[in-house]
Amino acid sequence: MRVPFVDLKRANDSLRDRIREVLDVAISGSAFVGGRFLSDFEERFALYCNNRFAVGTSSGTSALRLALLACGVKAGDEVITVSNTFIATVEAISQAGAKPIFVDTNLETGNMDTSLLESAISEKTRAIIPVHLYGNPCDMATVLEIAAENEVAIIEDACQAHGGEYLVDGRWVRAGSEGTAGCFSFYPTKNLGGFGEGGMVVTDSSEIAERVRMLRDHGQKEKNVHEIEGSNERLHSIQAAVLNVKLDLLDEWNRERRTLAQKYRELLAGLPILLPEPGKDVRHVYHLYVIRTEKRDALKSFLSSRGIDTAIHYPKPVHLHRAYSHLGYKHGDFPRSERWADEVLSLPMFVGLREEEIEYVSDAIKAFLQ
Fold it and tell me: d(Cα 144, Cα 164) in Å, to the nearest integer?
């Protein structure tokens, strides 16, 4: 059997007619930049996240960077995050002019170890970026408490966690909704993915929303009136139209991902591998299904020989990349992040993955371990 790591066609085929309809309307009206498609999607996504405002951007990376800038982050500031993340999280910090400050990860979840957060804060700290890695929300209750005590902004990196939830003060809330701002990516493979790049900033602050709108559009509030220096980082209207159609199915798709994850858990239980562990008081949406084993590379090769595609998210923590060598970190500084990078393996996980495919993958893992 051949099992792809991801097959977007299975989910997209079911929406082909609906998407064609909205694309026909966009083409007929030459609605390609701004306009109703964008504003409708922004309004609906803000409502979905229980925020007052949502501002579309060209990517999740731009969403993170523009959110930081809108919160006043500048050269000389420090922003705390994790090294166990996709490099875009850290690029956003350095490209906003600030210095990334890393804390190690929780060994069970791979998310920020919030017990280390307080000691990482200095007088230069301007913001914290907690990452909801793989769709698994991190310990936001602690992040919110520490940020409030120290009067620093929270920029939630929810780029992999559309529809994920966590418990705060007895309330279940969406990932991205409780920070100063929340940031999302609509890269095609995400739980809510477009037909290209795209991103979003959500916030309850009218000032931050307005600032992001200006920053994404050459610093202008109105055409040809440029009040600040910005850039061209808008979400295309056609992407917004496609995403608006898909938003109707996001919760259903997330439920399917949880069902698939439970099937993996049942079939892989008791084996000498580590399975994904949702954090306490969170609802994981399994953007990725990531196992851990010290035999990762050998297992990956074995599965490939059986026709099973896998991936590694991520093979090297950010502090060890040459691009950030100037920060002075070295191997051993964040041992749990480094251990995750050495052990993680992402198994096939996507809407439309079949039960017999999960059984085939699980049987192959068992064969390897035996």
Answer: 17
What pLDDT digit, counting tens, does each position of 75-98 carry?
Answer: 999 999 999 999 999 999 999 999
**pTM, to two decimals:** 0.97
**What 8-state DSSP symbol labels residue 160?**
T
CATH superfamily of 250-369: Aspartate Aminotransferase, domain 1 (3.90.1150.10)
Characterize the bridge pairing of strands 153-157 and 220-222.
Answer: unpaired
CA neighbor of 112 nearest in space, from 174, 154, 73: 154
Q: Would you identify the CATH topology of the domain 8-103+112-247? A: Aspartate Aminotransferase; domain 2 (3.40.640)
Using DSSP's 3-state secondary structure scheme, residue 334 falls into coil
**H-run or E-run covering 283:** strand 282-283
Is residue 260 within 8 A of residue 244, CB to CB? The reply is no
pLDDT digits (tens, 9 = 90+) for 136-179: 999 999 999 999 999 999 999 999 999 999 999 999 999 999 99
* Alpha helices (runs of H) in 7-108, residue ranges in sequence order: 8-13, 16-28, 36-48, 60-70, 88-95
CB contact at 8 A, 332 and 338: yes
d(CA 179, CA 138): 12
Burial of 226 (0-12, 13-18, 19+ CB in 10 A): middle
